């Protein structure tokens, strides 16, 4: 996928989070959320992005916490889910590159002594239109809990809990999906009370 197209998608996603999700999320967390997209690009910002941190907030104890955000558009409209990039097809080598978003989070979750930063929360939302800020649903949970749930249920034949799929739009990639309703039976999950839900 051309880098300018990817950049536009990332900007639309960031705008949806900033306008549609962040205000409600700040109210629920009782904290100011500072998205990385609003900061000047530096080596530190790139390093945070590599472990999946899209924003920061200060929790009630005064600790700086990382926050990961994903906004969906074409899928999961009626089935809220947490998602991570699971694999990317390398056409040159004709093989799957598995060192994607989920693998990096898994390594960080399993080796906390080696990683000073790890997204404490993962926020997943569905926007009605890219960059509109009109959010149909949004949920958040501890990233560690989501990673644990994936480890417990993948590979699985039960598509009601965790599964992988290849999106038909965009780059050839695999995505791992955690169904919110199934996850909520085992771990704490919170709905973000956005004002734009339609």
What features would you describe in this structure?
With 198 residues, this protein is of the alpha+beta class. The protein has one domain. The protein contains 5 helices and 10 strands, in the order αβαββββαββαββαβ. It has helices spanning 3-29, 43-50, 101-110, 143-153, 180-183; strands at 33-35, 55-58, 64-72, 81-90, 95-97, 119-127, 135-142, 162-165, 173-179, 190-191. β6 and β7 (135-142) form a beta hairpin.
For the biggest sheet, the summary is: 6 strands, mixed
Order of strands, widest sheet: 1-2-3-6-7-10
Number of strands: 10
- By DSSP (H or I, 4+ residues per run), the number of helices equals 5
Percent helix among the residues?
Answer: 25-40%
Briefly note the structural class of the backbone. Answer: alpha+beta
The termini sit apart by 31 Å
How large a portion of the residues is in β-strands, by DSSP E?
25-35%
Radius of gyration: 16 Å
Strand/helix succession: HEHEEEEHEEHEEHE
- Average pLDDT value? 85
Shape: globular
The low-confidence runs, each spanning 5 or more residues with pLDDT under 50, are none
The figure for the number of domains is 1
Please render the helix and strand layout as text.
Layout: H1 3-29, E1 33-35, H2 43-50, E2 55-58, E3 64-72, E4 81-90, E5 95-97, H3 101-110, E6 119-127, E7 135-142, H4 143-153, E8 162-165, E9 173-179, H5 180-183, E10 190-191
Parallel strand pairs: 3-6
Antiparallel strand pairs: 1-2, 2-3, 4-5, 4-9, 6-7, 7-10, 8-9
């Amino acid at each position: 996928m051309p880098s300018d197209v990817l950049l536009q998608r990332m900007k639309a996603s960031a705008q949806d989070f900033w306008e549609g999700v962040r205000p409600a999320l700040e109210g629920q967390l009782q904290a100011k959320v500072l998205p990385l997209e609003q900061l000047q690009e530096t080596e530190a910002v790139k390093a945070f992005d590599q472990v999946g941190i899209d924003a920061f907030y200060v929790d009630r104890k005064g600790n700086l916490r990382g926050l990961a955000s994903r906004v969906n558009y074409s899928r999961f409209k009626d089935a809220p889910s947490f998602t991570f990039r699971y694999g990317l097809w390398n056409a040159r080598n004709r093989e799957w590159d598995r060192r994607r978003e989920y693998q990096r989070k898994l390594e960080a979750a399993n080796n906390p002594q080696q990683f000073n930063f790890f997204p404490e929360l993962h926020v997943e939302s569905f926007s009605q239109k890219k960059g509109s800020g009109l959010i149909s649903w949004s949920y958040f949970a501890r990233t560690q809990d989501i990673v644990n749930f994936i480890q417990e249920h993948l590979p699985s034949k039960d598509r009601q809990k965790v599964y992988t799929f290849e999106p038909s739009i965009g780059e050839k990639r695999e995505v791992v999906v955690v169904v919110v309703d199934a996850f909520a039976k085992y771990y704490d999950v919170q709905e973000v009370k956005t004002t734009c839900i339609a």
